[in-house]
Amino acid sequence: MNKLFILPIVLVAMSCGSNDEVASGTFDDGEGGKGSYSVSGEGDDSETVIKTDDGEVRIATGSKAVADLPMGIKLYPGAEIQSSIAGMGDGKSGAMIVFKSSDDQDEVISFYKDQMKDKGIDVQTEIKSGDMQMIGGQRSDGEGINISVIKDEDGGVTTTLMAGGKN
User: Fold this and answer.
1) Given 74, 123, 128, 144, which is the most exposed site by the fewest CB atoms within 10 A?
2) Does residue 78 come out as left (phi exceeding 0), alpha (psi in the -120 to 50 range) or beta?
3) Spatial separation of the C-alpha atoms in residues 18 and 51, rounded to whole Å
4) Average per-residue pLDDT in the chain?
5) Alpha helices (runs of H) in the chain, residue ranges in sequence order
6) What is the distance between the alpha carbons of residues 107 and 124, in angstroms, rounded to a whole number?
7) Class of residue 29 by CB neighbours under 10 A (exposed 0-12, middle 13-18, buried 19+)
8) In angstroms, what is the C-alpha Rg of the chain?
């Protein structure tokens, strides 16, 4: 399916604003594939869902953002979600969440190291470079997680968490 065709639909639809569904419809990708989209929310609290025969993608911000992560990984306590994207298709799912916290890098990294250990994921990658720390790992079943934590100027951190694998 021509995924570049979907992006303009998403961008146009996300620019609309209301608390209810503000845009929805169907599309043809020009290669015989069909799909549907819906957009709801307003400004920083919006959600776009795109469905095709290949799967589903959900893009959300603010209060509509995904808080449930693959593999039973928990969201950091007190995290302020900035944005998220989740998708599923071909027997696999994944999610990416960006959040802020007033805690420091070591606390966030330690929390996710414990989460990984509890879920049977060995830390296979650990990088510290300037104001950034990153850890990552993968289970034997192919599910994996990567966490990148960057110091903010205000003393807190911004974290990007990506997790996914099979459904």
Assistant:
1) 128
2) left
3) 21
4) 81
5) 3-14, 105-118
6) 19
7) middle
8) 17
**Model confidence pLDDT, tens digit, residues 107-137:** 999 999 999 999 889 899 999 999 999 999 9
Task: Report the C-alpha gap between 106 and 76 in whole angstroms.
Answer: 13
Q: At 91, list the tokens.
A: 């027997």
Write down the pTM of the prediction: 0.71
What secondary structure letter does DSSP report for 75? P
- Geometric angle at alpha carbon 18, from 14 and 22, rounded to 5°: 60
Look at strands 157-166 and 92-101 and give their pairing. antiparallel
Biggest alpha carbon–alpha carbon distance for the chain: 51
- The pLDDT of residue 65: 65
Can you tell me the distance from the alpha carbon of 132 to that of 90, in angstroms, rounded to the nearest whole number?
33
DSSP β-bridge partners for residue 149: 133, 159
Count of CB atoms situated within 10 Å of the CB of 52: 18
Count Cβ atoms within 10 A of the Cβ of residue 111 and give its class: 0-12 exposed, 13-18 middle, 19 or more buried. Answer: middle
